Fold diguanylate cyclase.
Amino acid sequence: MQSSHTLNQDDALEQISQNVDFLTQQLHRGRRIGRFPRLLEHEYLRARNRRFLEIDRRIIAGGLLFYLAFCWSDILLGGASAQLLVSLRVGFAAVLFALLWWVPRSFLAPYMMVVAAVGVFAAGASVLFFITLIPAEMRFAYHLGMVPIQVFTMVALRLSMRAMLTVSLGLFALYVLLLLLQPLQTGQAEMDQILMVFVPLFVSFWLMLIGLGAYLAYAVESGARNDYVQNRLLTLEAVRLKVLTRQLHELSTTDSLTGIANRRYFEQQLDIEWRRAIRQQQPLALVMIDADRFKDYNDCYGHQQGDICLQSIAGVIAAHCQRPADLCARFGGEEFVLLLPGSSTADAARLAEKIRLDLAALQLPHERSEAGFCTLSAGVAAMIPAVGEHSDELLRRADRRLYQAKDKGRNCVVSA
C-alpha cells in the first residue's frame, strides 16, 4: 500500500502533466495575440502588469519629462497664449506624475495598462488642444508634435497591441476631426500651398507609423505571450523534476508495503548515528521487533490479510517515533527495528513495552497465537560506542535479546 504522501505526490505529478499538456497546446497555436483561456489569461495579465510596473513605469516617467521639455515651444510659438500653454502643460504633467505614483499603490494597480493607455491618449489630446490656442501661422509646428506622441504610444503600450491601436487610432481620429473643424492655414498664400501638400503627406505618414506600430506591437505581445507560456513550462518541468527526485528518493528509502523506512535506509542512518554517538559519547539504543507466529498468521488468514497486519504493526511503531532523530524501519519480512539516538536501555525498553501494549490493544484476531490476537516480541540493546567498535555489535545484541524474548514465550520485551 502506498503512503498518503506518495499518493499526494502522484496527484501532484498528474496535475503537473495536465498543466504541461495544456500549456503545450497553447504553444502549438503559434505566435498570436488572441486571449488565452480565462484562468491563464488572468495569470498572464497579472504577470504583464508586474512587468509594466517594474519597467514601463520608468518609460512613462521619461515620456512625461520629454512632454514637459516642450514648454520651450509653448514659450516661443505660443504668442499671447504662451503663459496659458505652459500652465496647462505643467499642470497636466503634474497630474499624470501624481497618477503615476498613486495608481500602483491603489486599487487601480491591476489596471495599470489601461490607466497608462488613458494617460497617453490624454497627453496626445492635450497637444491637439494646444494647437487650437496658438497663432495660426505657428500651428503647423504643433502638428509635427504628434509624431513623438505616436512614437511614445508605440513604445509605452508595446505589450498590448489592442491598447496601442486604440490610443493611436483615437488620436488619429481626433486629429482628422481637428483638421475638418480648423483647417491648417496660415493666411500666407505661399505657405498655405506648401501645407496643402504637407497635410496629406503627414496624414499618410502617420497612418504608416500606426501600421508599423501595430506590427511591432503584434510581434512584441505575441512574443511576450509565447515567452510567458515557455517560462511556465520550464517552471512546471522544474517542479516535476523536483517531485520525481523526491519520489525516487522515497522509493529508495521507503518500504512500499508499510510506508516506513526500508532496511537500506535504516542501515545508512544507523551508520550515521553510530558515528555521531562515538563523537558525542552519547548512548544509541536499538529495538528489534518481530511479529509473533506471523507465518502461522499468513497460513491461516492469507497473505493479503498478512500485509494488512504488517501495516497495522508498522503504524503502531511509527506512532511512537516522536523525536526528529527517531527512526522506525521494516528490517525484513515480519521484523521491524526502532533506532533511538540518545536513549538508554531503560528508556528504549519502556518505549518497546508501550508499543507491545498498543498492538495488543488493537486485538487483531490470530487464532494460532497463544493470546488469541496478534502480539509482538522485542529485544532492546543500547551502547555508548567506542572508536573501533562497529554498529553490527548493537544489532547482534538486540537480535540476541529478541531471541530471548521468543524463548520466554513471546509477547514480551527483553532488555537485559
User: Anything to note?
Assistant: The longest helix spans residues 189-253.
